[in-house]
Write a structure and sequence with these properties.
heterodimer; B: Rossmann fold; five-stranded parallel β-sheet; two-stranded antiparallel ribbon; about 15% strand
Chain lengths: ~290, ~160
């Protein structure tokens, strides 16, 4: 197994946008079908990003491009560390850093819409972070490792031991993937309450970089979901597909919530589902080494 | 097919429209007409938009706003004027505050007829504008190429 990680990490850098773009395209297609629409072609996200990169670059200030580029670089780095088999706890910090760069880029424009969008993104970060850490601690409890490949190789079906933590993770994935009801900071859907929120004043290639970073992020977030179902091939495929469908379904049937609700409920969910799952799990597993 | 033709992002501004055309523009996004089939996304940010949809006549108060939105959009861009008012001022043309159609402030590429315009014809206008964007992009590229050629030539002559 040793040595192959570096190739997977390199493959992630090259193939990550392709997989992420396809995830995005499939998402838009299924969403459209759920709403009774024909929907865009599967490759629509690729057309969008290709177009964005052909447009003239028009930064609002000198800081904007370096900050958004850093966001992209750290989003890629998070995935590279993840697939290289580094300590997942370390990866959480890099992931936070990537998001912070996007928030700083939004603050730098000075537009009132992007400022409120950045405020809300910070609030969402405080909302989802505890649950992600609980999820990693839970996975450690099952596999006794913080390494991606060692958790993947573990034969224990994590979803049977950690159903609460899995549901909690899906809950915070809605925030991380910017899905309704938590698409507070920015959204592609028509008539967003904050114009484009976080991505206001980002045009052309700058928005293209944000989209690319989002694709890279969605790949390792779904890889994180995969860890819950890695006991066999069949459960892995069914588990990830089910999670993907569940996220799109929730996105379509819920309305946007206020930030107070998002923050309070995320912590309640982290406490009830996360800790409520973790404590019994540790009490039971203490007897069996 | 060029990528700009496949993903025309829209920005919609209601100049002094009676809201009839605006409702029809929104109807284009509903499942029945589904503008996303053509890759359209309605953004609120002129910097991200390719096609500018204007409804209603332009008056002295909103003329600078229409101009401002148009100026913020990056080239190549297209303008679709929707409805009779956006064409000439419509039934409001004689009002003391109305300046005229959208063309009195910014260049218009496509006029969509109707009062109110039908969603089908609005979609046709958007698709036509997307095709015009492709032609504009091509012309821009050719112009840039010619510019570079002239610059190289003058540099060479200067060196001689």
């Amino acid at each position: 197994m040793k040595g192959i990680e570096i190739y997977i990490a390199i493959a992630y850098v090259i193939l990550g946008p392709i997989v992420g773009g396809l995830i995005d395209g499939l998402d838009r297609l299924i969403t459209a079908r759920m709403q009774g629409r024909v929907g865009p072609p599967l490759l629509q996200p690729f057309y969008d990003v290709r177009k964005l990169f052909t447009r003239r670059i028009a930064p609002v200030n000198r800081l904007q491009i370096p900050l958004v580029a850093s966001h992209l670089v750290f989003a890629i780095l998070t995935g590279v560390l993840f697939f290289y088999g580094s300590d997942i706890l370390l990866i959480i910090f890099v992931l936070t850093l990537a998001s912070i760069f996007l928030v700083l880029a939004a603050y730098s424009t000075g537009s009132p819409y992007s400022t409120i969008g950045a405020d809300r993104e910070l609030l969402l970060m405080t909302a989802y972070e505890p649950m992600i850490i609980i999820a990693l601690v839970g996975l450690y409890g099952v596999a006794k490792s913080f390494n991606f490949y060692q958790i993947l190789a573990s034969t224990m079906p994590a979803y049977l031991y950690l159903p609460g933590i899995y549901l909690g993770l899906v809950y915070v994935l809605m925030m991380k993937l910017r899905k309704s009801p938590f698409d507070l900071s920015t959204s592609h859907h028509a008539h967003q309450e904050l114009v484009m929120g976080l991505t206001s004043d980002m045009g052309g290639p700058i928005l293209g970089m944000v989209e690319l970073a989002h694709w890279y992020e969605s790949v390792y977030l779904f890889a994180l979901v995969l860890l819950f179902f890695s006991s066999s091939w069949i459960s892995a495929v069914i588990g990830v597909a089910f999670t993907f469908f569940l996220i799109i379904l929730i996105d379509n049937v819920t309305a946007r919530v206020k930030w107070e609700v998002a923050l309070a409920f995320a912590w309640i969910v982290a406490l009830v589902l996360g800790a409520g799952n973790l404590i019994p799990f540790y009490l039971i597993s203490r007897g069996t080494p | 097919m060029s990528s700009i033709e496949r993903s025309p992002w829209l920005i919609h501004y209601d100049a002094s429209s009676c809201n009839g055309c605006d409702i029809e523009v929104l109807a284009c996004l509903t499942p029945v007409y589904d503008a996303e089939r053509f890759g359209c996304i309605v953004t609120g940010d002129p910097k991200q938009a390719d096609i500018f949809l204007v409804t209603g006549s332009v008056n002295h108060l909103n003329a600078p706003i229409v101009k401002n939105i148009y100026d913020q959009m990056p080239e190549p861009k297209a303008v679709v004027a929707i409805g009779a008012c956006a064409y000439s001022g419509g039934v409001f043309a004689e009002c003391y505050n109305v300046q005229g159609g959208v063309a009195s402030v910014i260049p218009v590429d496509v006029y969509v007829p109707g009062c109110a315009a039908k969603p089908e014809s609005i979609l046709l206008g958007v698709v036509q504008a997307a095709q015009m964007l492709k032609a504009k992009e091509k012309a821009m590229k050719a112009a840039r190429k010619a510019e570079r050629k002239i610059a190289r030539k003058t540099k060479k002559e200067g060196a001689k």
